[in-house]
Amino acid sequence: MAITTIIILTILLFIFYKITHIIWKAIIYTLIILLVIMGTTTYLVYNDVQKIISDDKIIIISNENEVLTGAIFSNNNEKMTYLDQNEIDNYSILLGQGNMGAIKGEKYILARLDISNLSDMGNISYSNITMNLDEVKQLMLARTLDEFPINFNDLSEFEDDQVLEDTDKLIKCKMRLSMLLMRGMMVKSILFDNLSIYPERITSKLIEEFPKISLLAKNKLDEHTLKNG
User: Fold this and answer.
1) Shortest CA distance to 145 belongs to which of 116, 115, 123, 165?
2) How far apart are CA 56 and CA 38, in angstroms?
3) Alpha-carbon distance 83 to 72, whole Å?
4) Could you tell me which residues come within 8 angstroms of residue 99 by beta carbon, excluding any fewer than 6 positions away?
5) Where are the domains of the chain?
6) Dihedrals phi, psi of 202, to nearest 5 degrees
7) Which of 209, 206, 229 is nearest to 49 (CA)?
8) Mind listing the pLDDT tens digit for each residue in 82-98?
9) Within its chain, how far is the Cα of 24 from the centroid?
């Protein structure tokens, strides 16, 4: 009887060892794979961020298929060159054709902010004037000074600027105002609902997915809290 018990225990211990050995082996392999993936992702993200910072990039502000304003950032973001009206008209045609590659050209990325679906964001202060979203949109959609909802002379930043052409003033004003819109959208966590990056890169994809991951985690936490009182 004792011999039989010893044999059974030996067999059970051997089976347990085999099972746990396989499990631990699987866990170790999984950890190694995760570490490799995390290391590779970190390296790719780091390189991508460095290129986004250092390489030339173009930002356009649009209302559906119409480009309203834009700028090119170069020299590690130290230089910003506003688009001129000819470039804006040309990019509007390309945007209508969906030809994002032609708009991007040799730049590293193209960022496009579309304001067509923006909802109320409260008032926005620009220069020495406060405007609501409807007034901001009217300003952004203005093609000439006659359509511009406010007088340029009322904007403190243009008081002493007698050299800049009216069209260039519009482009410059719209671009600066769009930066304030971006800041407001970031505060309300809606920036990435209206911002698209071309071509899609790992960094932009991670940033785009982060709010969804955070929301999923929050929902799971709320669900767990409700279940456990």
Assistant:
1) 165
2) 28
3) 7
4) none
5) 1-53, 57-198
6) -60, -40
7) 206
8) 999 899 999 999 999 99
9) 40
